[in-house]
Amino acid sequence: MPNHSSGDVLVAAETLHAESNNTAFLKHQLNDLTINGVDGEAYREALDLAWRVPGPLEQFSILPLIPFNIGDLYFSFTNPSLFMLLTLSLVLLLVHLVTKNGGGNSVPNAWQSLVELIYDFVPNLVNEQIGGLSVNVKQKYFPCISVTFTFSLFRNPQGMIPYSFTVTSHFLITLGLSFSIFIGITIVGFQRNGLHFLSFSLPAGVPLPLAPFLVLLELISYCFRALSLGIRLFANMMAGHSLVKILSGSAWTMLCMNDLLYFIGDLGPLFIVLALTGPELGVAILQAHVSTISICIYLNDATNLHQSGYLFIIEKKRGAKPSLRGEGAITSPRSKKENKKKCTSRS
Amino acid sequence: MLEGAKSMGAGAATIASAGAAVGIGNVFSSLIHSVARNPSLAKQLFGYAILGFALTEAIASFASMMAFLISSVF
After folding, report:
1. At what angle do helices A137-158 and A110-130 cross, to 10 degrees?
2. In this model, does residue A325 exceed pLDDT 60?
3. Which of A224, A241, A290 to mutate to test the interface with B (most CBs of B within 10 A)?
4. Carries keyword Repressor (chain B) (predicted)?
5. How confident is the model at residue A15, as a pLDDT?
6. B58: nearest CB among A55, A232, A289
7. Per residue in A165-187, pLDDT tens?
8. How far is Cα A24 from Cα A15, in angstroms, rounded to an integer?
9. What distance in Å separates residue A240's CA from the closest CA in chain B?
């Protein structure tokens, strides 16, 4: 057995990387292979090189592309920023090209249909959730929610492209988004309802001794929404991508085993990876939908305050018509609106 | 010792997916029940069911996320 330490091999490998046709190193490797065969150092090195599968979480590492610091603050242009810019420019380009000739064609082509489909999807969702009593509300918050939806709709599936970076698989990004939305929703709630917004934390008709616990509970659940909105998106993206990575790593390792049985068995994980790609894309699009719906629900809670029956109390306090008292306390807002219409037409 | 405890913890974290499995099954069984009662609402109900499925599935991915965290971060 030739006497070389592991450091010796490391130096040799480094020279190999610097200069691929280093004859001394290659001769050394050849000698090792001919003398020791399968038990030798060179064979093991080669196997280690072939088996080196990056960990499942390595794909999420943030790398600075243009390093840039101001004092201790870190302002580098990283790969998340690159892919976010890429997604944003893609969406803007798509919308721009479709609406080029003053709003597109009257008979839409495929691209225009796609954009119209995405655009039409949001108002239905917003109207369904934030319809409420007043009619103006739906127009007011529609642009913000539409932008949020479109951005995450393109941002989530973009991570499924091989060798790209999943922007939404980071706490930092999803929590930044959800916290800013949460703060905005709270401001909207206070703006629309004034201090009546605080009545949000105590449902109507609760016995007074229970009130302290309930207020605490409702406050916690209200603050937890900000977290859950971000974590849901993050967990879905990260878990799915890690799963695909682990399975493909297992397929790759089996492929490198140099054994016919493993080579055939390798098809199993490979097909599971292929099959998982579909659900992953589905989850990516569905999560955009779900987070948009959650934002709508939170916004509705903030503007309309527990809606059924409860709204009535606030309206009464604000000095609305007391004639409604008998009929519309628990009914849904739509029927209440009809009731109001009926009342006005009757009188 | 630590490695073994880590593996046990990661394995124990995946027990939570049993609950998510029950939840997903519940969502779709309710969908089938509802559609059997009123087939004309099938399309609307499917939308709600997919929403419920996504919310339940998010919890399932919390479990697998914990397993990943335990096994590879700490």
Report:
1. 130
2. no
3. A290
4. no
5. 54
6. A232
7. 888 888 888 999 999 999 999 99
8. 10
9. 8
